[in-house]
C-alpha cells in the first residue's frame, strides 16, 4: 500500500502506550491496532483529529505517502 502509517513512531516519541491513546480518543485497542498496522481501509477525520490532538502532532506526522 502506498500510504504508510507511522502511528507507532509518534507513540514512541510521545512515550505513550497504544492502550492509553485508544482510551483518550475513544476507540478500541483492536481498532487502533488495525490502524497502526496499516490494514485499515479508511480513517475518519474526527479520529485523525483526536489522534493529532492527543499526540500534539500534524496528520503528516502520522500518514506518509510512498509510491508503490
TrEMBL record:
SMART domains: HTH_XRE. Residues 13-62 form the HTH cro/C1-type domain. Transmembrane segments: none annotated. It comes from the Bacteria. CDD domains: HTH_XRE (cd00093). InterPro entries: Cro/C1-type_HTH, Lambda_DNA-bd_dom_sf. PANTHER family: DNA-BINDING PROTEIN, DNA-BINDING PROTEIN-RELATED. This is Helix-turn-helix domain-containing protein. It comes from Polaribacter marinivivus. The lineage of its organism: Bacteria, Pseudomonadati, Bacteroidota, Flavobacteriia, Flavobacteriales.
Amino acid at each position: 500500500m502506498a500510504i504508510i502509517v507511522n502511528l507507532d513512531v509518534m507513540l514512541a516519541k510521545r512515550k505513550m502506550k497504544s492502550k492509553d491513546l485508544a482510551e483518550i480518543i475513544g476507540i478500541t485497542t483492536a481498532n487502533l491496532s488495525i490502524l497502526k498496522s496499516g490494514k485499515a481501509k479508511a480513517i475518519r477525520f474526527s479520529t485523525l483529529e483526536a489522534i493529532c490532538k492527543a499526540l500534539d502532532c500534524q496528520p503528516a506526522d502520522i500518514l506518509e505517502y510512498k509510491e508503490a
